Amino acid sequence: MKKLFGTDGIRGVAGTFPLDPGTVGYIGLALGEILTKSGNAGRVVVGHDTRESGEWITGKLISSLTGCGILDIHNVGVITTPGLAFLTRLHQFDLGVMISASHNPYQDNGIKIFSRDGFKLSDELEADLERSIYGLIESQRPAPAIELKNISHRNQELIQDYRTFLINQAKTQLTSFEIGLDVCNGSAFSIAPEVFRELGANLRLINDAPNGRNINDGCGSLHLESLIDLVSRFSLDFGVAFDGDADRSLSVTPSGRVFDGDFVLYAFSRYLRQTGQLKSGSVVGTVMTNFALEKALQEEGLELLRAPVGDKYVLEEMIRAGSNLGGEPSGHVILRDYHTTGDGILTTLKLAEILLKKSLSLDEVAKGFRPFPQVLDGIRIRQKVPLSESPEVLRVVEKTRSQLGSAGRIVVRYSGTEPILRIMAEGENLDHVKRLVAELKSRLLEILFSYDARPL
């Protein structure tokens, strides 16, 4: 059986397995049956990003949930993933379901599931749900046809709760800032500008006209060229780019420097430590977190703890260690004192707060942190062969690791959301790292040729 859940829920091309109408119906049935069997009242909140497939997937899920007797369903329409998680926790919904494929192109979509505490489901609960879904598929039980006229659409009232939460987290007005926002033609296209304008910021917006197909299309946190140009052209204080569902953000300084998740963890850890707010003396990153951050934190007397890639794994490690700060280089940053998941808008508000209280520019905040040169590459592959079962793969990776030595790191892992074997290497000499990655990639392509491996 193909595994349904990756590092961030169920994801695929909309209209094909596992996001074909039939399987989406079974996913809804499985969720409904879990709720009814648990004895919960069955209150559910559902939202989606701006992809054209979001509405029909939402409708199919709601129809199946209703067929299980779940009648208290609130469809809030377009919302960010952290907004949906917040509403689930605030209003104690038994389940929150977000339809989004985050940073992926519009053809893809996904289903992210939150429990009433605002946390993503554990691996164990996902495995139970996956077994239920496959059991329904094998039974070929027909999904009920239900009219959706009784479904609540209190979207504006509920979404206002999230806007109010964000505004209340800002401890100062932003009237002194001129900010560029790339809202990625995605979930943040209306919420983010409204929040920043309410706080007095002067805004320049780009990519704020979603049409169902332009989400993440040459814009947002994966494509910063337009934002860098905007900040430079209008001499803005900084720019911020969100991804499709705004659970991550990257910032751009006036000099054109990119302020990624590692920079944010560096800036926040120093500020929280200085103000006595950093808990446990540790910050949680991932296996992809730059080695330079680990060294910089050590110099501050702090420890970097590494979790697997995926913000839910970062959160799990934060809970285990008692940490209140964690995140990923991609821009997922979890401020556990305020939220249970990465929130690009919240991160930006808190970053602006640091700039104001320290009377620093973003370039000045970034000045103390110099990441090691890092090379990211990968191989697209038809079948994810367990790397531990290939001695030849392990051997060539270990050879590259020994060539990097103690002043560098290499990580070879499968993407949790795409059919890609990712390669990350970092070290003090960029040319040396590039050469080693190119050699490793070439050898991996040879070894994995029979699995239809090809360069990205």
DSSP strand tally = 19
The low-confidence parts are: none
- Give the N-to-C terminal Cα separation: 26 Å
The residue fraction in helices comes out at: 25-40%
CATH fold-level label of the largest domain: Alpha-D-Glucose-1,6-Bisphosphate, Chain A, domain 3
How many domains in all? 4
CATH top-level class of the largest domain: Alpha Beta
- Beta content comes to 15-25%
| Rounded radius of gyration (Å) | 22 Å
Q: CATH superfamily assignment of the largest domain?
A: Alpha-D-Glucose-1,6-Bisphosphate, subunit A, domain 3
Q: Average pLDDT, to the nearest integer?
A: 92
Briefly summarize what is shown:
Helix content is 39%, strand content 20%. It is an alpha/beta fold and 456 residues long.
List the helices and strands and how they pair.
Elements lengths: L4 E2 L2 E5 L7 H18 L4 E6 L5 H14 L4 E7 L2 H10 L4 E5 L8 E8 L7 H17 L15 H15 L8 E5 L5 H11 L3 E5 L18 H9 L4 E5 L6 E4 L5 E2 L1 H14 L7 E5 L4 H9 L3 E5 L3 H11 L3 E3 L5 E3 L8 H15 L3 H5 L7 E7 L10 H14 L4 E6 L5 E7 L3 H18 L6 E2 L1
Helix pairs in contact: 1-2, 1-4, 3-5, 5-6, 13-14
